[in-house]
Structure formats: structure tokens, C-alpha cells
Amino acid sequence: MARIAMLGTGLIGMFYTVALQGKRGRDEVTVVYGRDPERTKAFAEKHGVPRWTTEMAEAIAASETDAVVIGLPNHLHKEAVALAVEAKKPVLCTKPLARNAAEAREILEVVEKAGIFHGYLEDLVYTPKTLKAIASVQQGAVGKVLWTRSREAHPGPHSDWFWNKELSGGGAIVDMGCHCIEIGRSFVGKDVRPLEVVCWGDTQVHPIEAEDHAVGLVRYATGAVAQFEVAWTFRGGMDLRDEVSGTEGSIWLNHWLRTGFEVFSSGGPGGYVAEKAESETGWMFPVGDEAAALGYEAMFTDMLDALEAGRPPVETFYDGYVVNAIMDAAYRSMETKRWEPVELEIWRGTEGGEGRAAAAAYDERYDLIKRERMPDGRVKLILKDRSSGEVVQKVEGS
Amino acid sequence: MARIAMLGTGLIGMFYTVALQGKRGRDEVTVVYGRDPERTKAFAEKHGVPRWTTEMAEAIAASETDAVVIGLPNHLHKEAVALAVEAKKPVLCTKPLARNAAEAREILEVVEKAGIFHGYLEDLVYTPKTLKAIASVQQGAVGKVLWTRSREAHPGPHSDWFWNKELSGGGAIVDMGCHCIEIGRSFVGKDVRPLEVVCWGDTQVHPIEAEDHAVGLVRYATGAVAQFEVAWTFRGGMDLRDEVSGTEGSIWLNHWLRTGFEVFSSGGPGGYVAEKAESETGWMFPVGDEAAALGYEAMFTDMLDALEAGRPPVETFYDGYVVNAIMDAAYRSMETKRWEPVELEIWRGTEGGEGRAAAAAYDERYDLIKRERMPDGRVKLILKDRSSGEVVQKVEGS
Amino acid sequence: MARIAMLGTGLIGMFYTVALQGKRGRDEVTVVYGRDPERTKAFAEKHGVPRWTTEMAEAIAASETDAVVIGLPNHLHKEAVALAVEAKKPVLCTKPLARNAAEAREILEVVEKAGIFHGYLEDLVYTPKTLKAIASVQQGAVGKVLWTRSREAHPGPHSDWFWNKELSGGGAIVDMGCHCIEIGRSFVGKDVRPLEVVCWGDTQVHPIEAEDHAVGLVRYATGAVAQFEVAWTFRGGMDLRDEVSGTEGSIWLNHWLRTGFEVFSSGGPGGYVAEKAESETGWMFPVGDEAAALGYEAMFTDMLDALEAGRPPVETFYDGYVVNAIMDAAYRSMETKRWEPVELEIWRGTEGGEGRAAAAAYDERYDLIKRERMPDGRVKLILKDRSSGEVVQKVEGS
Amino acid sequence: MARIAMLGTGLIGMFYTVALQGKRGRDEVTVVYGRDPERTKAFAEKHGVPRWTTEMAEAIAASETDAVVIGLPNHLHKEAVALAVEAKKPVLCTKPLARNAAEAREILEVVEKAGIFHGYLEDLVYTPKTLKAIASVQQGAVGKVLWTRSREAHPGPHSDWFWNKELSGGGAIVDMGCHCIEIGRSFVGKDVRPLEVVCWGDTQVHPIEAEDHAVGLVRYATGAVAQFEVAWTFRGGMDLRDEVSGTEGSIWLNHWLRTGFEVFSSGGPGGYVAEKAESETGWMFPVGDEAAALGYEAMFTDMLDALEAGRPPVETFYDGYVVNAIMDAAYRSMETKRWEPVELEIWRGTEGGEGRAAAAAYDERYDLIKRERMPDGRVKLILKDRSSGEVVQKVEGS
């Protein structure tokens, strides 16, 4: 059992608390910190949290606090981590770890220097589908990964600070790109070095400074490319999809709008259908168990099991730092309009990649480009003459 | 926290134990009973259960047993419940409650007479999607329920006793129809009386006595019809779908083969893809978190919360009895080839139904049959003359 | 090239004309008959039909009429066919052929006696998906057919006469059950005798005499069961789905609401989205090419190619008669509340069925019930002792 | 009626011929040209083409040739067009128009100078779903278009010349990117200037010179971005999907692998399931009418109707030229690793774009960033102070 100090009372603090205390969980949020006393008190009452405070240090240092969960706006992560380190408490921080790689590195170094347990609350890597898909990829179900696509798009976040670049560090990339980048990295392999990024981003709709729409490509040392797509401009609910393409297979995940739950209603029930749904009549696509589908349950299971077992969780502050470094390159690419290198002063994975899959020799003269069965049942080969480069086709048995 | 005696070490015992002990759960299986010592010992070791036995009474009476979970073949439920009653332990029994309504009634009466807490482990009513869909229906999202369809079909069960009519009480209806019937009942309203059943069943493929395929209709007092479809003959994996149709809307649930998780693999990873999947190459449709998707998590949460709170769970032995009574009528209908009444000696819901939705009067002369917008934007009305019965159409504004 | 007399100017006449004259078709509607002069004239102008009339006999007898297409209400089919026979013109009649089997038989006999070419315009058997699925079934893709389900449901027809039992002959069964029954029959095999029907039907919502909702089962001589589901009470658009389940496979068709075309619109474009769509905002599911998706194109291609080639089309008046006989049994079953025989005075298919698939002998003692691969990779067999009937399980290699 | 000279006997020539002569079409292929006499003769026999030749000029000049359809490898388009111009015959050319923009411009100029009718056979713009989606976008269903995604991916083409960069002009971009680019352009608006392109491409799997995988972004003058994704490395069949995202809505199209046709077969029927399907067992996803689903029917309808009516078709050689110019920029970007301008010496659309959607003023002080309904029913506004830039939130009615 873990006793948690929850920092933050917004949507994310609510989701974390529900996930931690939900079902037959053995963990408890024992103190909650918020800036606004009324709101914090209400949060504590609603979720049965015995103690609340508007002093962050108090929540962290409380004797009943076994671990600290940071669910605060991005600009407050560094301060909160520092307080946890001071109190020598394990600390779990929401995504993104920081507003940029420099800040993320500072945060990483302070916890590592102090030897503090740290977890990076990258929930979307932990959705039941994503976990199983990553395991399938690791078992070879799709062969060598060639390309991934991770997309998160909706009509924009619920809280004001997200829309303020000072406080958040950016726009849709900082808000959601961090998810998409880490999902892509998890499919490609987290020990594979991200080399460079090209990114388009624009402020297409809203009267804000930061980008409300962006698409980027991250190129990895194996030659794989991981595509991320983020938007605060999407209409239709929340579009949360991942795709992987490899030499031997493909995976398509749809986490939100098409999960096998389809409702048509001519006149709404008046209730809350799903996070970021846009309407209460017509065809709607709710999600069965939102906290589970978003990965919160499996994430805290890993985090707290890791804490108790004395092992690192799947996602640590180091991962948060790598993601920030990739996002920094994306923002530079938006400015320079070219591929920008990912600057990773700290790199703990492998170097070099694997190059192209070895050409399959067909015989002494030819390499095999493609083998396919034709409608008439015969097999056609497309071959390349290794010396002349000529491409020919040949029907087997003819 | 609840300390559980698990009776049974088959697939269902495994799923129950994983659900009870999974994630950050606070409950524990403290003793497991099985008939085969080797298998029971292996089960205990695999799932970290501290004690195992081949004596059912011992597991139930053990001082560390707070509650008993029955995961045994159908013909053993009555004996196991009797032992729990004797030991005055709360008892949760897998589906179906019994082999027929008479046996179910005996089981119900023995627990009620003893005042023992009892839960009916009807997991498919508890899937995250089903729970949310039932709540939507109760909130009026589809209006008055007119029709439901619940389908469970796969290539047949894993254990031998299912295929033996003596031990199981029947075939696919007893195995899976109980799920489909209770899902339909949950949509129509559990206090609405099931009136009669017509059912087709046949042994189409397997060399067995019992039906391996059946389709039935249950007519309720409100006029709603709940359709159940069960098969041990289905090819393609496990087909687990529900539909509801009401005066104001529709719901379609797909729990298994189309949940937003799609994998193509040219050469399998060698691993376990999903319960009852049929292949390890080509397009496959795994489920993210099987125990959650099948409702085990939410079911035990309700059951054990109810036990602690001193309230009945959503599904009690009484529900199991009603389901058995409906299945009995289905089996009779297979014999007599006609609608058969549902014989419920114990009925605790409402009597009577609601009849047809009141006709909407259009004006003094006509009832409104239908109002529709035509492609050209005008509105067409189809009206019925209340006295002459004549049906006419009228374009508004023309 | 065929020159067509189109009888009827309603929705069905419009769809037929668009299909016949659409794209780069070589056929032409050269005369159109309708009861209302204004409407008929407008129809002719809109579709470029050179001649119109309010005299049915004139349209049929016209020198430029090569073939007659009947798109009239059910109670007028017999008269129209008689006029075509009199004029010795090939005749294609919309579905259902008649209001009941007796009337259908009269219609069939009059055309056969006169040796007139006749086609039954059962468009939903001809959708591109259905045609390919039937071909797959015939090639053995699903093995022996065990069960089919065909569903058509929407909020009710557009014209007044459908709602008048006198004119139409019935309700949703006569309107749409004819489609579903012939689709099921096409999957089971059109030469397999339909034996009996059980059917539930009710008037759940509308102030009409006829059923607005029905579900029926047709049992065939091979043991296959074909389920039909029809509703004028469905909310959400038009639900048009078919399923087939066989010993070796399964097919699922969705013709309308989920065809890979998904639109979310916050504020409607003002246009016509799709036949029987219910809204113009929110998530909508249009169909690309409605006339093609509903089978009209492939149907007229078969019909007119057959006429030119002097062969019968896939669907003849005989098929229409069989369908009427099955619907008659369904209506009787609604009254008697039991399975009712299909009374076919004219039967041109095979007699007898195939019985259960032969049991697979495992060895001298056992029949094989099921073979399955377990999660650990081993193969488990479920076997039945032929003499004792005992069911056992055995793990291969153990 | 049009009498067609078909140049080419490959897969594309076959699809074109089937589409032209299929169903009840009034057009005919009257002569076919191929380089290989045996194959050409066989093609003519199979498709009922009365005349065949290995002389391209002969086929074009034949007195029975009303129009020429070019279905040849890319490097032969220019020569074929020149011969058609010489013979003063209308000419329809397959995609891409040429190997690069310079060659495309030459082709365009020669037909325009001669005043010859020309059509660009961009079939995927003409699929029934795409046509309807483009019409919806033009009617305003999604508001202002912000982003599009068009994807075509499969395991590689059937003929050898595609794999030879000399003959084809490139790899997957030239083969399929032309489709995706024109689809994106059709959604954004064909009169909107494409400004610049960034593109990643790589040869990931095959022993060839050209790219077998590429992703690019095309930025348009309105600020919209059109994403294209092409791969010869995809496993699982043919992935053919389009998406559009606008200020008021979204569209998702799936043309191939998920169209509402789903088959599971344990042992294949031996037949041809679908173009580029990868297996004949397990779950498969055929397409009902392939020629229609790929747009061939609607394309030739538009082309030949346009020819007869003396109007230009939807897709002309000019469109082919624009697409080639965009592909040229994509190839340059792959080299320079930066955004590259689209060089269009001939531009016939509008100049300038529309900029960001006008900010919605909330009151004298604030702009509205977002309005949303909260779970509790109240409406929350996120506002930006126009002078200070501060972002605040406000709950209406509180």
C-alpha cells in the first residue's frame, strides 16, 4: 500500500486520484495540495482525501506521505520535484516532464543525484492496447519496425494555463506531442537513438501564441520514422490512434472514437458521455472505462509496484528528458524549416543503427525484390540483376 | 480487504484469481481448492496463493477465508453453496447458478434462509461497456427499450465437462445463454417480468448430446423482446456483441473482435494472442486487457464493496434463479416448438407492462405515423385518420 | 440496349431509373407511367424520359417498350403483370412479388404459361458485397452454412401506402423481410427446401394495423437456420447487415452505416446525406454510391444481360413466390405462436438435407469433439467415447 | 458511345477495360495495343476486343478509334500523347502524367497547342466515397480545411518496370504519391496554390534505387497542410485511407481494408480475394466491386461525358502537371532535407490565402479561445485579454 500526496486538483489530478483509489485498490491519496483553498477542499471531500492544504511543501513533507504525485501545470514541475527531493520522497511527475530539455535535464539530475525514486507519468504508453501492442512488437509480430504514427487531436484543453505559452512551454506539441513521441519511441525501441526531427506547426484557429496544430517526423538510428500528429483544432471528439508498420506486419490502435461502443440517441440523456465528446445526440462513441483506457490504472500499477520492488518503472524522468529533447528539435525545425538534430547530452541507449534489411539473394545473379501470388495462382518474382541493376520479372514454373 | 477461498482451478478460476489479485488490488486469494492435487498445487504456486487443498470443506471453513468464490462445474454449485452456508461464509457463485430453475431455487432458498451474503458472478453484465450502456439506457438515451440482441459465439469451451450434458445441464444455452439472457434483462429492466420464450437449438457440428447452437427470443411484459444467440460452432475467434434498440436510440457493443486493436502479422510471434483466437498470422484482433474487458474487475469490485457495505450486489442468486427459469423455458420451447411461458414461482419485480407507446395526435382528425424531412428540405407527414383508418401523406407548407 | 417502360414514379421508380440510365449505361427508360399526371410529367422531365402517361396499358403496349419494369405498390403488381403478359413484353417486378403466396403463384403461372421473360427485382441480393459473399460461400470459404442473419431496420418507409395493410399486404415483413429471407436463402442455397418458420412480430410504436418490428427464423432442410430481423422502429439511420456462419468460417457484411465513410460536422452543409439518415450534424455515415451499394446496378445488369442472352436471371418470379410462401408461414407463426410449415405447392429444388456433419473419429474408441492449442503451445483434445458417451480431455504429447 | 483504343495490357489496362466495358456500358474498347504479341492477343480475346496490334500508331490512327486511353509505363506517356495529337484523337492518360514536371509541361503544352481533348486518369479522386466527400467539403460540411491525410500503402507493385527508376521516374511517390497529392489538393481546393513541400523518403526494405516508403507535407496558400503517405513496404493488404480535418468537422474514408466486408475462413476457397490481399485464410477484408471502389467507373463516366459534352473533365493534364510539380519538390526536399518551394511556371488558380480564422471577440476586452460544456452542465470560457495577452477562464452564470 502506498500513501500518496497529490499535487494538483485539475482534470489530471482527478483522473490520477480516481485511478489510484478506484476499484479495489490498496493505495490511498492521503493529502491533496491545491492553490485555491475552496477548490482544494472540495476536491478532498469529493474523493475522500483526509487532508488538504494550499502549502505544497506541507503536503510533500507530511508524515503520511509515502510518495508524491505531481499533477501541476508544466512551469511548476521543477519546484515540486525540488521539494520532493528535499523531503527525500519518491516522486512521480505528470507529462511533459518540463517545458524544454534544459529544464528536464535539471530535474533529472536533481533526482538522480539524490537517489530518489522517480517515475514519468506517461499514461498513454500504458493503455492496455498500447502495452500489448508494444509487447507484440518486441516479440517480433511485425518484424523490424519501419514507421509509426501516433495521433492525438481534440478541440483543445480544458484549463486556461495550457493556452499560455509562458506557463506551458508551448502548444499542442508540449501538451500532446510528448505522448505521441514516447509511443513512437516505445515501438521503435527505447534504446534506439532519435537522430533528427522535421516538424510543421501552425496556429490555425485560435487567438494564441503557440501552435494549435502540428505534424512531425522523428528519424531514428535504425532508419525507422515515427510520425506524430497533434491538434487542438480537431472536431468530432478525441482522436487517439496509433499505427505501426514493420517488415512483417502492421498494428492499428484506436483508443477512443471507435472502440466497439456505438450509441445513437435522438434526444440526449443529459449525462456526461465521454471526455471531449462534442455532442449529446446523434451517433456517439463513448469509452467503457475511461481511466483504464487512458492507461492510468496500468501506469500506477507499474509505478507503485516498481517503488515497492526497488526497480525503476517503465517510464522514468530520463524518458521525460529524451522526449523534451525531441520536442525541442521539433520547435527548432518549425523555425528553421529543416530537419534538426536531436540534442541529447545524456544518452544511455545504443549507438548506430541496423541499415536496410539485407537483400534476399534469389540466385547467383539476382536479388529478390518481390514474390507474389497472381490471381491465376502462379507465383511471380520481381528480380534485380546484381551487376547490371536491371529489373526483370519471372513467373515460377513457366 | 477480503480474503478469498477460490474453489476451482480451471480457466474461470484463473481469470477470477487474476482479477482479484491483479493490479494494485487489496484482496487476496488465500486458499484454493481443486480436485486434482498436482494441478491445484501448481495453481497455488503460479498465483501466489499460500494454501491449497483437495478438500472443499477445508477451504471454505479455513479461518483465513472471508468469502467463498465458486468457480466449479455446474453440477457442483449446490454442494459448494451448502458448505458455505454451513460455514456461514459469504458466497459468490459463477454462472449459471444451477443446471435448472428448480436447483437454482433450492440454492437461493438455502442462502436466503441462512441470511448469507450471496453474489451471482455474471461477469458480462459488468464489462465497462455494458455497465455504461445500461446506465445510458436507464438515463433514457434510447427511450423505451423495444428489442435487444446479445450474442456469444466461439468454437466451443476448453474443458471436457462442458460437453457432457449430465454435468453441465445443457449445451451452449447453459454455458453462454445465461450471459446473453441477463444482459438482455439488464437492458429491458430487471424488474420487468419475462413472460415467454421461443427458442431454436440444434446440435449441428459436434458429436454430443446437447445443443451446440441456439437462438431464442424472450418476450417481456413491456412488449420488449430480448434475443439471445449462442454458438459453439462459430469460426473466427469469440464473437461477443450486444445491441439495444429503443424508441429514441440504439446501442451497439462489440466486446471482442472489433475493439480498436487490429494486428496483421505474416509470421506469428509465437505468443498467446487472445482467448479463443483462432490463428497467429494474418489479421488478428486482440483485446487490450482481457480480464477487464470481460467484466471480472468491475464485478468483484461491486461484489466485495457490497459485502463490506452490507448491501446486495448488482447480481444476486435471485438473478441467477430468474436466468435459470428463462433457460428452462427455452429448453421446453426447443421440444414443443412453440412459445413457452417462463415459470417464476418467486417473482420480485413489477407486474404488467406499458403497452404500445401512445399514438401522437396530429390534429382532431389524424394520428401521426411518421414525420420526415425529404431531400428537398420539405417535411412530409404520414397520417392516419382515426375514424376511417385511412393513411394519407401531406407535405407541410404545401 | 433495352428500352424500358417504367411503371411507378416513387422512390423505387427513381432509384430504378437512375440505375438504368446512370453512368455510361446503354439502356433507356423510354416511357414512364404514373397515376398522378403532374408528378409523372415532372418525373419524365427530371430523368429525361421522352414519354409519360397515366394509362398503364399504354406504357406497356408502346412500340418503343422492349421491357416493363414494375415499381408500383404491392396491390398493383398482379394487374401490371397481366398487362405485360397480354402485350407479350418481358416483365421485371419489384419486391415483394405479391401480397401473399397465393397471389404470387397466380402471377408466376400467368407469366410461365405465356412464356414471358420475368425477373424478380430483389436488389439486396445483388449488392456488390452480397454477390461476392454468396460466391465465396459457394466456393466453400465458410464450409457448410449453419446460420445466417439478415437485418434491415430503419425509421419506416417514405410513402403512405406502405403503412396501409390492405394495399401492402403486411408491415415490415412484407416490406423488408422479403429481402432478408432471400438473402438468407441465397447463402443457404436456393435449391435447399425451407421447411418451417417461427416468427415474432409486434406493433410496438406506430398507430397502424401491421407489424412495425419482427424477428423470424427459417429452418432449412440442411439444418441451417436463417434469421431475419426487420424494423420500422430503428433509430440511427438504416441498419443493413448480413452475417453467415459456417463450419469453416464466417462473413459479416455491413452495407450502410459502417462502410468506411465517416463524417463529423458541427453544422450541416444543408444537403442530403444519405437515404434514411437521421441528422445533418454530429457523426454521420454516408454511403459512397447509393444506387450501386443497394444492388440496383448489378441487378439490372443481370436482368437485361439475361434477357438479351435468353437465359433466366438470378432472381425470377419463382424466387418471389418462394419468398412469399416463407412470409406467409411467418405471419401464421405470429398468430399461432409456434413453428409453421412453409407451404410450397411448387418446389423445384432438392428434397432432403444433409444432417449433421459426420463426426470425426479420433481413433477406434473416441470421436473428436474439439482440438485446440493452449496458451502454453500444447494441443488439447476433447474426445467422446463412442460406446459409453463419456467425454474426456487429453493433452497431446503428454 | 465511345470507341476506345487501349494502350497497354497490364493490370491497369485490364482495370480500365473492365470498367469501360463492364455492366451495361455503352462504350467499347475496339483495339488494344501491347508490346508483346502473345499477351496482347490473349488480352483481346479475354476482353472481347475485336482488334489488337503491336504498333502503337496503328491503334491510335485506326478509323474505329474515337479516343485513346494510355495505360502504359510512365516513360512511354510522352510518345503516346504525341501520336494521339498527331492523329488528332482525344487522349486520356494514366497517372502520373509524366516522370517530372518538365516532361508533364511538354505533354500539357502539346495537347493544348493542338486543341486536343485531354483527361488525366486520376482514378482515386473519383471513388464514390471521395467524390461525395469532396462535395461535402465544398458544401461546407467541415468548414475551412486545415489538414488532410491521404495514404496508399501495400507490399509493392505487380510489374517490373515500377521498380526501375529510369522507366518510372521514381519509387512509391511517383507510383502512389500522385494519387495522395491530388486527393489532398481536391480537399483543400484545386484553385489554392501549393506553396512548398517537406518530404521524408527512404529505401527501407527492397534492393532498389528508388524510395519504397515516403511521407510528405504540402503546405497551401490558405495555411492548410496536406499530408501524403506512401509505402511499398506495408504488410496486410492495401491500406487506402483519406482524412480531412476542418474548423467545423472531420471526414475519415477507408476505401479498402475496412469497408464493411469481413470474412473469416479457416481454409481458403482457392479464389482471388482482393487486389493485393496477403492471404487466403484467417480474417480477410475483400471489397465488393473493386473497379467501382477504385473510381474507374465514375472516372470514365466523367471523362467520356465531358468529351461528348465538349467540356473539360474534372481531371485534366493540367492537374497532372501540378501534381508532377509537387512531386518534384518532394524529391528535392528528400535531398536538401528542408522545405522546398513548388515551382509552377504555369499557375491557373488564385493567389494568396485566407490567413487564420478571424478571432472571435467575446466582449470589448477579450477574445474567445474556447467555449465548452463541463460535466456539471455549466459552460466554461477560455478568454484572452486582447491588450495584455493574459489567458483566463470564466464559468458562465457564476
Task: Describe this protein with a few key phrases.
11 helices; alpha/beta; globular; homotetramer; 398 residues; 7-stranded mixed beta sheet
Overview of this protein structure:
- The structure is a homotetramer of 398-residue chains.
- Helices cover 31% and strands 26% of the residues of chain A.
- Chain A is α/β, with parallel strands linked by helices.
- Chain A has a seven-stranded mixed sheet with strand order 12-11-7-10-9-8-15. A six-stranded parallel sheet of chain A has the order 3-2-1-4-5-6, with helices on both faces. In chain A, strands 16-17-18-19 form a four-stranded antiparallel sheet, with no helix packed on it.
- In chain A, helix 5 (101-114) runs antiparallel to helix 11 (317-336).
- The radius of gyration of chain A is 24 Å and the shape is globular.
- Mean pLDDT of chain A is 92; it is low at 268-275.
- The interface between B and C is large, with 68 and 68 residues.
Topology:
Four copies of one chain form a homotetramer.
Chain A: E1 3-7, H1 11-21, E2 28-33, H2 37-47, E3 51-53, H3 56-61, E4 67-70, H4 77-86, E5 91-94, H5 101-114, E6 118-121, H6 128-138, E7 145-153, H7 165-168, H8 172-188, E8 194-202, E9 213-220, E10 225-231, E11 239-246, E12 249-254, E13 261-265, E14 282-284, H9 290-293, H10 296-309, H11 317-336, E15 340-341, E16 360-361, E17 366-373, E18 379-385, E19 391-395
Parallel strand pairs in A: 1-2, 1-4, 2-3, 4-5, 5-6, 7-10
Antiparallel strand pairs in A: 7-11, 8-9, 8-15, 9-10, 11-12, 13-14, 16-17, 17-18, 18-19
